[in-house]
Amino acid sequence: MFLLNSDLFDLHALIVFFRNEPERFSDYICAFEEILDHIGREPTDDNIKHNAIRNILRKYSHGDGMLSWYLVNNAFSNNLIVIKDPAVYGVISGIFCEMMDVYFDTDRFVMLCDAVHNVPVLLAQEPKPRKNIEMMIKPYRKNYNSRFLKNELKGLQ
């Protein structure tokens, strides 16, 4: 299913939250699984939904003050872009899968979140984000996973 650029900004905010509150990630694993399922569905122009990420997060609300933004719908009416590039979804999926695989190791998880928190913003705004993303994730690759996003980034410019 397609996301809007505003959904990518929501993913950025979500990753920043977990960078600051890594112990809370386990409370939201089901939300991440649902997000992965959502973006893995066959995309068509007739299944674009506004506030897709926020609507998923609401189901798993835990009263987190830092996440209260998802309780209010985005009211963006200008510059909304439908994200149709399949490579974007591959990168987001790769990030979320890595987060779910390593959340039990707090140092690694925080470094991962620090490395990728701006990736959704770059994917939403930059026409050629690949080089910037590779620079941002370089320390994480060096310290933990040299193959992180290698295949997923091949589809980006």
Set out the fold topology:
Elements lengths: L2 E2 H16 L8 H12 L11 H7 L23 E2 L2 H17 L3 H11 L2 H7 L4 H14 L6 H4 L4
Antiparallel strand pairs: 1-2
Structural features:
single chain; 157 residues; mainly alpha; two-stranded antiparallel sheet; 8 helices; 2 strands
Descriptive overview:
The chain has 157 residues and is mainly alpha-helical. It is built from eight helices and two strands. It has a two-stranded antiparallel ribbon with strand order 1-2. Helix 5 runs antiparallel to helix 7 (130-143). It is globular.
Number of strands: 2
Number of helices: 8
Secondary structure category: mainly alpha
Report the mean per-residue pLDDT as an integer.
Answer: 88
Helix content: 55-70%
Instruction: Give a short account of the largest sheet.
Output: 2 strands, antiparallel
For the record, give the distance between the C-alpha atoms at the N and C termini, rounded to a whole number: 22 Å
**Rg calc:** 15 Å
